[in-house]
Design a protein that fits this description.
The protein is of the alpha/beta class. It has ten helices and six strands; from the N terminus they run H-H-H-H-H-E-H-H-E-E-H-E-H-E-E-H. The protein has a six-stranded mixed sheet, sandwiched between helices. Helix 8 links the parallel strand 3 and strand 4. Helix 1 crosses helix 3, helix 2 packs across helix 5 and helix 3 packs across helix 5.
């Protein structure tokens, strides 16, 4: 028997994929080559994943995020392979790889979209790495040369997924580095180190996580909050988790309105602008 989320996620995913693909095709207004069709396919599936998880989280706000994400995963693999049996589709390697690539990008874009809605009109925004690269290349980032040099290194190494931007009197400054992970369990050690480097360079460093199931283990909580023999210092200024229910020091539950993130982003932007010399790893946002 299908779980209660699957049909909703399947229908939402398929509708958005078709809508986006047909829109891209119509905008092209000429015969579509195989290469262009592949590009349209990638864009449409990213949009389908992003829209499906956003709507599913709103439709089933009290259900496990991992279950919703798994349902969308099955919908994606069904479209790619035509197979609906879970044991069989897990063997469809090409579809599985396609999911891993597209779902990560879709989650990043979902974070950007929802953060942008929450922060609209505040002078603070969250942008994708490629958008920061465009600002730097166009000479439109007003940070000091040392900052820009450091940010270029992060972009080259593909370290962070998104960045926090503060606009002051028409000038754009990068003040934050953001990671967005569907699941961080297998990568937490690797992702923690660049976050620490960002905080040492006086940037705000936070991470969004879709599935926080790994946080049941004290080791991972310590990697974020610090305070253990192995991990004395915190690894991020904050972690925002869609599946979390309660705040645990620097680990925050995230709802679709992004209210807690908005509050913290504005506090971080002010700290970076006015008191950057004290903006180190010990800084923590005030949560009302």
């Amino acid at each position: 028997m299908e779980n209660k989320y699957y049909q909703f996620c399947l229908r939402t995913y398929q509708n958005e994929y078709t809508r986006c693909f047909q829109k891209l095709k119509a905008e092209h207004k000429s015969p579509v080559s195989n290469k262009l069709a592949e590009d349209f396919d990638r864009e449409a599936q990213k949009s389908a994943i992003r829209i499906a998880i956003t709507k599913a989280l709103r439709q089933f706000p009290d259900e496990p995020v991992a279950e919703l994400w798994s349902a969308i995963y099955r919908a994606h693999l069904f479209r790619k392979s035509g197979i609906s049996d879970l044991e069989t589709i897990n063997k469809v390697i090409s579809a599985d790889q396609s999911w891993k690539k597209s779902s990560g990008h879709a989650f990043e874009e979902m974070v950007k979209e929802l953060a942008s809605l929450a922060l609209y009109g505040t002078g603070v925004e969250i942008i994708l790495q490629r958008d920061l690269n465009t600002l730097i290349k166009a000479g439109e980032l007003a940070n000091e040369p040392r900052d820009i040099s450091w940010l270029k290194e992060q972009i080259k190494a593909n370290i962070f997924d998104l960045y926090g931007i503060l606009t002051i009197e028409g000038k754009k400054f990068c003040f934050g580095c953001v990671q967005a992970k569907t699941s961080i369990r297998d990568r937490v050690t690797r992702d923690r180190e660049p976050s620490i480097h960002a905080m040492q360079s006086f940037f705000w460093s936070v991470v969004f996580v879709l599935d926080g199931d790994f946080l049941r283990l004290p080791k991972f909580v310590s990697m974020i909050n610090g305070g253990s023999e192995e991990f004395r210092e915190n690894g991020w200024h904050g972690m925002y988790v869609l599946s979390a229910k309660e705040t645990n020091q620097r680990i925050y539950p995230l709802t679709m309105d992004f209210d807690i993130f908005k509050s913290h982003a504005l506090q971080a932007a002010e700290q970076w602008q006015k008191r950057r010399q004290w903006f180190d790893s010990r800084w923590i946002a005030v949560t009302s």
